[in-house]
What does this fold into?
Amino acid sequence: MVPDAAGGLCAERLQYAASMSDPSPARALATAEILSIGSELLVGETRDTNSGDVAAALADQGVAVRRIQALPDELTMVCAAFVQAMSTVDLVVSTGGLGPTPDDLTREAIATALGEVPVIDPTLETWLRGRWTRRRLPFPAINLKQAWLIPSAVAIPNENGTAPGWWVDRGSGPIVVALPGPPREMRPMWEGWVLPRLATEGLGVPRDVRTLRLSGIGESQLADRLGDDILRSNNPMVATYARSDAVDVRISAVDEPGRGAASPADPGSQPRAAAELADEAEARIMAVAGNHVWARGATTWPMAIDAALAGRGWTLAIVETGAGGSVAGLLGTLDGLAVAEVRSKRSRGLATRAHMIRIAREQAATAGADVGLAVEAVEQRGDLRVTIGVAAPDGDHVERRTAFLSGDQGRARVAVAAADVLLAVLRRSAPIG
It folds into this structure.
């Protein structure tokens, strides 16, 4: 039933993959590869959101995702990708290619890679035909393909479509999970069926993962401060990511078993917990860039400022000029926001400190808010010079910054600069002057 189109490379690699199987019943699913299958992904007709969702879930469980591949609907390529992945990682997750049409080739690829022949499963056939019977429609014979199973696979239920997934497990070696491509089908199957089952199979390793969120410093400047000894460490692993609203530093550590002394001259090393290793890395990062850290984890600017306002029992009013509504756009979801006003007029020059405090106070008074935030941006030589004034019950503060670039990118950076200054004033965690 499987066309002999893979051949060649795939058949040769199959023997290699089979030789990698571990006969021991105990295993840990510590590494994974994700295959996104469908020619539509490679021509831009469909955006692959599945891989990001699966990768994030696996990373949260302490699984290292070694590679994510997008593949066309070509049997030879898909088969070879499965064989290669099965020979190098503990878990292979694919999405797409489970439809009934001739170009849906995921089942054929897995079967060929494992040297197994799919047959129509009676239970799946009954379930599948029942879907058409309930709709009073004739059952298309082409859909029988979606009732295929190979001996080492069990079906993953799909309550939102006609494409059951495959859970392929030979009892040793890697586990292969094949899921349909439409996210509304894939996600419930992944979250409700696959992840709980993977958890019983030894998914991941104990891991301490934390993220520091920084502002007022670029990624390259931050990397220069951290140095190679931090950024090239294997455990913990430290990586920087430039986001639209921050520069993130992700710390990921696993338990270190230690090494016993090999000889009287070799003292060896003691086991160390992941949390201890992550603590040390975080302390080193804070020592060189701690003044730029404004949040941890997935905290957003609105979340951080909301918490700071709530902690003081204050509300906020915003007025901005020359920033195109970017400040209101960033902070508009604040629970403590009394009003946000956008002024379209352009400033002719940098506002004075007294002017910024005056309009911040006026805005707060008009809105009946406790704190006023005034932001004014002026374009200068391709960048935006921004003046930020905060009028608060316990003191006022004015600060000038440069938002590099103009246009939408520059205005977005104006909003982040304003949020950064406002949060520092609300927290009063550093001298403000």
Q: What stands out?
A: Confidence is low (pLDDT under 50) at residues 1-7, 16-25, 429-433.
